[in-house]
Amino acid sequence: MVNLTIDGKQITTSKTSTIYEAAKENGIYIPVLCYAKKLLPYGACRVCLVEVEQMKGRLIPSCTTPVTEGMVITTMTDEIRKVRKTVLEFLLVNHVVDCPVCDKGGECDLQDLSYDYEVVTNRFEGEKFDLPKDEVNPLIERNMNRCVLCGKCVRVCDEVVGYGSYSFINRGFETKIATAFDRGLDCEFCGQCVSMCPVGAILPRPFKFKARPWQLKEVDSVCGYCGNGCTVTLGVKDNQVETIRFNDETGVNDGNLCIRGRFGYSYINSDQRLTKPLIRKNGELKEASWDDALKAAAKGLKEAGDQVGILSGARLSNEELFLMKNVAKALGTENLDHSGGESYKGVTEGLFETLGVKASSATFPQVENANAILAIRSDFYETHPVFGMVINQAIRRNDAKLSVIADKFGKLSKLPNARTLIHKPGMELNLLNALCHTLIDEGLAKTEGVDGLDDLKAGLKDYSAETVAAAVGGDAEKIKETARDLAKAENAAIVLAYGLPYTAYSKEIATAAANLALLTGIAGREGSGLYLCGEKANSQGAIDLGILPGNNGLGAQQMLAAAGEGELKALYLVGEDPLASYPDKALVETALEKTFLIVQDIFLSASAEKADVVFPAGSFAEKDGTFTNAERRIQRLRAGIKSPGEAKTDYEILQLMLKEFDAAAPATPAEAFTALAAETAGYKDVSIDKIGAHGFVWGGETLQPAKKQLVAVSGADAPEGDYQLLVGSALYHSGTVSVHAKGPMAVVSEPYIELGRDDAAALNIEDGDKIKLKAANGEIQAKAKVDRRLPKGVFFTPYHFAELQLNSIYTGQAAIAVQPAKV
Amino acid sequence: MSETAEKLKILICTGTGGLASGAADVVAAFEAEFDKHNVAGKIGSACDVNGTGCRGLCANDVLVDVCLPGQDAVTYDFVTADLVPQIVEEHILGNEPVAKKVAGKYYHEFLDKQERVVFSRCGTIDAESLDDFLDHKGFDGIKKAVTMTQDEVVDEVKKAGLRGRGGGGFPTGMKWGFAKGSPGDHKYLICNADEGDPGAFMDRSILEGDPYGLIEGMMIAAYAIGCKFAYVYVRAEYPLAIKRLQMAIDTCYEKGFLGENCLGLDFKLDMRIKAGAGAFVCGEETALMASIEGHRGMSRPRPPFPAVRGLWGKPTNINNVETYANVSYIFYNGAEWYSSIGTENTKGTKIFALTGKVKHTGLVEVPAGITMREVIYDVCGGILNNRKFKAVQAGGPSGGCLPSEAIDAEVDYDSLIKAGAMMGSGGLVVMDETTCMVDIARFFLNFTRVESCGKCIPCRIGLKIMLEILERITSGQGQEGDIEMLQDMAYDIKKSSLCGLGQTAPNPVLSTIRYFRDEYETHIKEKECPSHSCKELLHFRVIEDKCKKCGLCPRVCPVDAIEWEKGQVARIDLDKCTKCTSCYDACRFMAIE
């Protein structure tokens, strides 16, 4: 700690603080333009200059100068005021000052400072900037005529996002921010630059002329897309979500978002939303009253007796999931499941059998201090971009060593000094086994208190780094280095995402990862963690609440199979579109056709079109309740708007359903939370008021394993055939909801099949050509995307687009053997 | 340069200045003549033709020393290849120096008041020869340093009183002490050879003339601080310097003088050249480090200082070329010897690069404490064409102008600052009565404005506005209050800029206002340029009583706008005149205004 004096006030602060931070902590205001909490000190704007008695002769930038013992600081004198005002006058000489039509008006730092310092007239004169605007992309507008060159966009894109879209170009007065070759912006479109810009130079285009900032009601909620659980602050006007506001005070994401979180909100306002219940009459879905729809649904379910099944999505709130469980109870069925039933087994079975828990062992912010990180699958950045940014920060700030087990190259493999352990499709397991083998072989394994070592050793005997490297087409030395990095790191993290497109070996991969976490000592160690991250916003909540088949119940795949064979009479789909997203379309199609089908969704999905009764449901923006994210953080959802038309939130609909079956339901989500907390492991001590600005992490920052049981798992065989198709997630989309959102669709609007340059050349396919992939049980067609990500013989396609009919050939395999051809 | 030779030696300046004047041809001519006449056979000794570093008097290049065995060297200036056969025939073979071509008295006067310490090897040894270097005390300094502890080496430099020659004048020993004291075993050493001030070429000459000397100085620093990796950041506009230094580094590696076990003295040092990319601001240490790291050359805030967090976040010591070059000599001759040269607060010698309206432009190395007047008049022979001295700009674009009443200031860090200039890296631009001081301020500000990295607002925008005001004044659009506005802005910019570039950029404006305010006022109030230099304020009128009716001006006028008849005063037809100023420049009598 350091003692100093600011404006006569005695202050004690951490020795790593800057003058600005020390002042801020103590309620002393110093203006800033280029400072940002999450970025490295920069010191460009000179607005935060103060006087330091020990550093006389010049003014000292408070935002970059560390405090030292005994410093005596004055934050305002006539001289300081004058110099700051001069700086502002300089800025306003060439700035276009078009505040009346600037979307930043009202929350612009330059505007506010000019007001504070009464820059009424300007002693200096000069020509106004007349630089071309960048309006090439539909999401981010760049108007460099308003730029103050604080460099926040350049810095955030490099330091946090790790993309590096921007740079300064030119020198002196001609300096400006530009992209490579000064072309239009073409990037991840995460919009971090938008959120950082202190003026109106970088703005979200969808928000243009939508509202003045002060007209917006700000509602803090949680993003409805992935399991990262980012805080999104809805900017609401006239019952419309007009934008997502910057908020680095709440939640776990430090104000960072991805394209989905920042620009993917527009599906909420879509005119395609279901606004009325529908009932199938004479083979057609017709609008109906709630009363009739509920009655019809209840009738169908009652007729089916206990031959019913409920399939849920993982984007429902905990409270809604709780009610759904009660619906299942009321129906007297244990046929309850979510998210395809297979993909999450890494958590429910893999982790449970090894560590005795069903969740990630640590929290995201801890990864920033990691020394070594292992990402299983390069797609981790695609599924959990904001967590990916934390990994980037660990590398840049903490020199963390990142290794990626990857079947293709991706963003993660491009991060500084990243080591990519490339492998043939579906062979992640083999590499994980090889890592464990190396640890044991080199005597690096931490085996104290760990059970099953001998069995594991026996199981791993064929998985030496050399053998595996040869089998997967990798490099043995890289495997060994990775194992050593993980073993010697004080803080280490293993990250793995799960979800519908990653069902193959889900249990086995998690088991092998848990073995590795045990042998490296990561499991349960403070500062380290094994992260299994669900694809959907409340994947963890669904597991915590047990939206799983009961002892005598059927899982998702079994339910569909049973339905196809006529053994299940009715299916109730809540927030799930299996026809579009589940593997094995034929199985799903038969099941949906043969049963009495209730679908509860916000859009008339492919599955809903087959339904007998459709309930129009609410989006996350319309809900109160809680989500539990992939690090066990329970966070509050707050309704920003009312559902359109007669649509109701899933909570309300499930309440009504319970009523149909004369079952009780808590009146409000808050009451439901109290009820669910009482019967959910880990939630017992949580009450709604304990969920603060940063949520509540059940089980604590570090979740201790209940046991330490090594379990040997066999690796996979190398895939046969010349060409393999990988299925996965694309960065710009999440599940099947984002295809209704303008933002993501503006960047990736249609399905594609990605392939490497070598294959493209061999097949005579160019970017944008139509390509056909023939598999054993069908074929798909889409535009080709040619790049350098994919190894030879490997194709990739994202699973978000129903029109691709990917699940006609995808049945949950690790890789699909295909025959490609140009169409 | 006199040194009694044992064998026949021809020393030819092959610095950039020499080469530009044709030194390569001169070297070839000597070699050809020697072959032709079998000089070696006739003299009975080997004859070396050595390309040396800069000799200082660049204005008179190519300089050639002819050293006959047992005799004092004879210096020729303005040597061309055509002259070589005559020198060989008459002087070398005939033992009769070519009297008409031998450098005149001025050459000895030029050397008299100098004290060539750092330059002692420049111009005497073959710049590319390690053996020659070793014959001239080479690597004795580092060998002595390693017999001392690291702290003792730092103390020796402190005792010598060496201060940074890059311009700031920070005590070198203290700087090394900071870097040595920083925790961590991974430290970097950097040599700043991004010499960018207009009219400064001291560092270039050292790099070209004594590259091994620099390497030795850096070795001593690396040993003292505990650095295992050194960078020399040389501006890419110095191809010869880069070539010679790279050659020297390569040779050192070959001989094991650099690398795992330097000179077998049991310490490790790797050295690499990083060529700059043409940005003046990269001479600023934090921008330089950003540039080495591969980032855009932009300054970073200090603290943290490089000694704590420098290159790639590691403790780093950064000094200028001349500073390191000085270090070797401290260890050859001892701190006491070193501190006996100079003044109380400025020890040793300082190299200046003189350019502008001075007779003998070139490089001079003088002991600190000598006055500016002595440098200009005694060493460099005074003002060109015997015009009137007006001012000398010291310290480049960061420095200031000293008028005639201030040139008795001593060459000393503190005296120069007191006088309103600064030592800077050592560029001295001499100006005579035809130089307009407002225009000079404009020139330097234009330079810094263009070279600003654009990061901080005062430097990026403030300098441009200052420049616009100066441009307005020099074009006759000056307004009442402009001077005060300039002073006021200059104050704010100096106070608020991020790095040395912005903090010092207004200095030329402030110092010219301080000493030549009347010139500013004449520009603004009378719309006249007293020096007849600002083009837009020239009248292109012949002053009748000054005109000597010589008829020179009509001959140089490219558009026949001047009417003149023998015995008549010339007259300029303004309808035809294109204001090219050819007549003004040509007139010896200042008869055109």
Structure characterization notes:
The complex is a heterodimer of chains A (823) and B (593). With 823 residues, chain A is of the alpha/beta class. In chain A, a hairpin with a 2-residue loop joins strand 1 (2-6) and strand 2. Chain A is globular and about 85 Å long. Chain A starts with a strand and ends with a strand. In chain B, helix 10 (202-209) crosses helix 11, helix 18 runs antiparallel to helix 19 (457-474) and helix 18 packs across helix 22. Chain B has helices at residues 16-20, 23-37, 39-43, 84-93, 105-112, 130-135, 140-145, 150-160, 172-181, 202-209, 211-225, 239-254, 285-292, 321-333, 335-339, 372-379, 413-419, 437-451, 457-474, 482-496, 500-504, 507-526, 552-556, 582-586; strands at 8-13, 47-52, 64-67, 74-76, 188-193, 229-234, 270-275, 316-320, 349-356, 362-367, 389-394, 400-403, 427-432, 562-563, 571-572. Chain B is globular. The mean pLDDT of chain B is 92. In chain B, the strands form four sheets. A five-stranded mixed beta sheet of chain B has the order 10-9-13-11-12, with helices on both faces. Chain B has a four-stranded mixed beta sheet with strand order 2-1-3-4. In chain B, strands 7-6-5-8 form a four-stranded parallel beta sheet, sandwiched between helices. Classes of the chains: A alpha/beta (823), B alpha/beta (593). Chain A binds chain B through residues 41-46, 49, 58-59, 61, 64-66, 79, 82-83, 86-87, 90-91, 93-94, 123-124, 126, 148-149, 151, 167-168, 170-175, and chain B through 279, 281, 296, 298, 300-301, 303-304, 449-458, 460-465, 468, 485, 489, 492, 494-498, 503.
Task: Spell out the key features of this protein.
heterodimer, A: 823 residues, 7-stranded mixed beta sheet, 34 strands, 28% helix, B: 593 residues, 4-stranded mixed beta sheet, 15 strands, globular
Briefly summarize what is shown.
The complex is a heterodimer of chains A (about 800) and B (about 600). Chain A has about 800 residues and is α/β, with parallel strands linked by helices.
